[in-house]
Amino acid sequence: MTESSMGLPEVHILRANVRAPRAGVDVGQARVGVAFSDPDGLLASPWKTLKRNASSNQDVRLLARELKARNVCRVYVGLPRSLKGNDTASTEMAWEYADILNNLLNSPSSDLAAPHDPQAGSPTPASDVVIPVFMIDERLSTVSAHKTLRENGIDSRKHRAIIDQAAAVNILQQALEMESAQQRIPGDFVPFPESAPGLPEAPEAKDPSL
User: Fold this and answer.
1) I need a labelling partner for 101 at 20 to 30 A (CA). Which of 26, 51, 72, 148 fits?
2) Which of 22-31, 81-90, 113-122, 181-190 has the highest mean pLDDT?
3) Residue range 179-195: average pLDDT?
4) pTM given for the model
5) Which of these, 165, 63, 152, lies nearest to 116 by C-alpha position?
6) Amino acid 2: pLDDT
7) Which class would CATH give 13-183?
């Protein structure tokens, strides 16, 4: 089996070239911004800001249900690093969030039946289609988001309510443009859970005496 450039077996980029939305996620300690693309992967648009709840992960569950409901083909989670490219506490937080989301999306044992936000629509049961999650360098996404909001004439006092969504849009738009320019899926692949549906079972060990 050949391996793709991002370490994900090519056979498991299940819908890499399918016409389907992508998602962008900006993870913060208090809030999580979310954006979605059109099915052709051309333009990122804001969806909403979720209140982060690290104790129950209810926000991650709500997001996982929405990703399933929209039938996204992959998710890009922003990976914050210092300007010098070093890992920070925020980097670790983003990886932890991505791991939780990955397990909710791709583990048969995940439970997406928790109480949901009525605005997000009805919860969708986990399917047999895996949804790959990728980490995208976002060290300047928030700075760019503030700049974009200012250029659109939005008062800086109103930025707080929508800055996370704007950052998610920047993360996703960056990924979409990299997809188009490089003709591949960018970012660092978050490994599937070992029990993810659609992954091949390990071959049975052969008896050496035969």
Assistant:
1) 148
2) 22-31
3) 87
4) 0.75
5) 63
6) 31
7) alpha beta
Q: Tell me which DSSP letter residue 30 carries.
A: S
The pLDDT, as a whole number, for residue 60 is 97
The domains of the chain are located at 13-183
User: 197 φ, ψ to 5°?
Assistant: -65, 150
DSSP the chain: --B-TTSSBGGG-TTTTSS--EEEEEE-SSEEEEEEE-TTS--EEEEEEEEP-TTT-HHHHHHHHHHHHHT-SEEEEEE---TTS---HHHHHHHHHHHHHHHHHH-TT----S---GGG-S-----S----EEEEE-TTHHHHHHHHHHHTT--GGGHHHHHHHHHHHHHHHHHHHHHHHHTS--SEE-PPPTT-TTSPPPPPPP-TT-
Residue 15 pLDDT > 90? no
